[in-house]
Amino acid sequence: MHLIRRVLVCALLTSGALAALVSLDRLFPPPLARLEDLSTVVLDREGELLRAFATSEGSWRLPITPDAVDPLYLALLLAIEDRRFFFHPGVDPLALARALFQLLRYGRVISGGSTLTMQLARLLEPRPRTLSAKFLEMARALQLEWHLGKAGVLAAYLTLVPMGGNLEGVRAASLAWFGHEPRVLSPAEAALLVALPQAPTRLRPDRFPERAQAARDRVLERGRARGILDEADVRAARAAPIPRVRRPLPFHAPHLAERRARAAPAGAVVRTTVDGALQRALERLARSELDRLPPPVDLAILVVEHGSGRVRAWVGAGDWNDPHRLSKLDLVRAVRSPGSTLKPFVYGLAFDAGIAHPNTLVRDEARRFEDYSPRNFDGGFVGDVSLRTALVASLNLPAVLLAERLGPNVIAERLAAAGVQLVFARSHATAGLPLVLGGVGTRLFDLVAAYGALARDGSLRPLTDDPAAPQPEPLPLLAPESAAVLAAILAEAPRPAGVPPGTRRIAYKTGTSHRLRDGWAIGFDGGHVVGVWVGRADGAFCAVCNGPGTAAPILFRVLALLPEVPLVLPPPRDPLLGPPPPALARLAPRPLAQAPERGRGPRITFPVEGSVIVVEPGQALPLRASGGQPPYRWLVDGHPLPARARSHPLWMPDDDGFAQLRVVDAAGRSDTVTVTVARRVVQPALSPTSPSRTRPAP
């Protein structure tokens, strides 16, 4: 009976003690706020760091787990800081007894007796070094072990341990001092990382390299004494230099990383689909291309795996830190005029609708569509031509004829339904025929997705850079036969000037927007689709910003960095191959599209077609016409001159580049010329070239 009473009393006391501990734990939970205030990190598809963001305190505090650290570092750390880490509950009685004995014997602190868990408690809740603070650290250490366990305590320590300046944790220190992840460390590197937390300010290697070296060498000697390192390892490690410069942390895909980090909670680990090695290679390529482009001309590159829609590289601007360009803007997502890059989809929709065939003949000649008179880039026309040849040469009139047959609103609706974002100048504007020549806004992001449909089976797979995002169903854009034939046609386009011939077959299309504001090149093979944009972020005239001469060579240099996957061509019995059916032998214009009556209508006598006009800023030019039935009405790029200017019309150019002048007489007959305005001397690093015959419409 007496024994039973003792057991009950012990049980009650134990229960009471446990209840008290649980109550204290709830009243005073572990202070984990610093452990929760981590740097947001953005990773590539292999888990390598693309970019990190400082914490709210301005520290670089990158999360890490023990399995991501070299075992040699962990062995040195535990041997020197906490030999019995895996055997004590957070407080090591033997270490405390040793420290107390040394204090009594020598009258000063020889070893502190703190475990890694107690050091973690001090990092989470800094206090002055007093005896009462030591007891609180011990209590917190027991609590931390209870909540986090050994693996959690070690991970927290590796994340928070100070490493000099605003560097915290082994990962930030390894990246900043050695330039690589701590997954693999040399004995010299591991020893320095063990030594730095002992006095992170006094031992900073960039400020006090001699002190840092002495501390590192002491760790190496202790590692040899504990049997972790042999004599040869120590000798080689002591000869290794101390890093004297703090390196910047990885900074890749900054535009994508910033967008993803902004959408994630603070301290999140954000994973992407980016191929880190490819991203770094394209960033180097982009910086080298900027050396050829006069500031403030910039560029953007997007690489996508078209089978999955996953983004593999995202270069939002040539160089984030370039002070001469607006490179903080993400030009992959900027809305710009697409030039001729929408033409293939107009052809494909016409093939789908059964109103055209790749070998349908069309006459490329001057035509007027009400008040719209598109021209080719060189102002000339080639006469009868097949649609296949017209697309390869990027002629304008055949594309406008197809758009007129389909209806521009139908084209815009089909593109929008497939996820291609189109932006009009006015929010409630409807699509017009100029859409096919760039009279609308869209993004490189959307164009790359659309060309991915040509590379696939005609269905557009929405792009993603999030590996965890559910994969949406592809959106129909074109029939598989039309997409395959378009891919084969675009593969016939000649390589740009300066690009050596090769066996690799690439389907690609270029585009140049009105007044040389944007140059585009978008191409694909059997595995990837690549988009390149060149222009000024402010949308101003740019002498070198054209698709064939500037963007296309960059496109081919990008594709050369990708693994080669053969381009799939249409099957031999495709209905869009061979001669067209009789009903589609020739595409005749509708009666609404009439050739301008130049013999009886007005004719512009100044300036003349194709001329280059050099004017001083603020200088006005006289406009002259003859014939037709006065009074005349003048339009510049589709905008009428003020009424007061019609009797003695004067035109004051407001920008460099192409301008389209049109005169309309009282009978509604018109004449149009295209001129180039140069208001200042431009000496670009590249000579503007224009191998394409296209002239983008306003």
Q: Strand fraction band?
A: 15-25%
Shape: elongated
By secondary-structure content and strand pairing, the structural class works out as alpha+beta
Separate helix tally: 19
Highest-level CATH class of the domain at 31-239: Mainly Alpha
- The CATH homologous superfamily of the domain at 31-239 is termed Biosynthetic peptidoglycan transglycosylase-like
Quick one: biggest sheet? 5 strands, antiparallel
The side-by-side strand order for the widest beta sheet comes to 7-6-15-14-13
End-to-end Cα distance, whole Å, is 104 Å
> What is Rg?
35 Å
Q: Give the CATH topology of the domain at 31-239.
A: Penicillin binding protein transpeptidase fold
Averaged pLDDT, please?
86
The count of DSSP E runs of length 2 or more, i.e. the number of strands, is: 26
Give the % helix: 25-40%
What does this protein structure show overall?
It contains 19 helices and 26 strands. Residues 592-599 and 681-698 have low confidence and may be disordered. Among the domains are: 31-239, Biosynthetic peptidoglycan transglycosylase-like (Penicillin binding protein transpeptidase fold, Orthogonal Bundle); 314-444 and 455-487 and 569-587, DD-peptidase/beta-lactamase superfamily (Beta-lactamase, 3-Layer(aba) Sandwich), CATH 3.40.710; 596-678, Immunoglobulins (Immunoglobulin-like). The strands form nine sheets. A five-stranded antiparallel beta sheet has the order 7-6-15-14-13, sandwiched between helices. Strands 19-26-25-22-23 form a five-stranded mixed beta sheet, with no helix packed on it. Helix 5 (116-124) crosses helix 6. The N and C termini lie far apart (104 Å). The protein is elongated. The chain is of the alpha+beta class and 698 residues long.
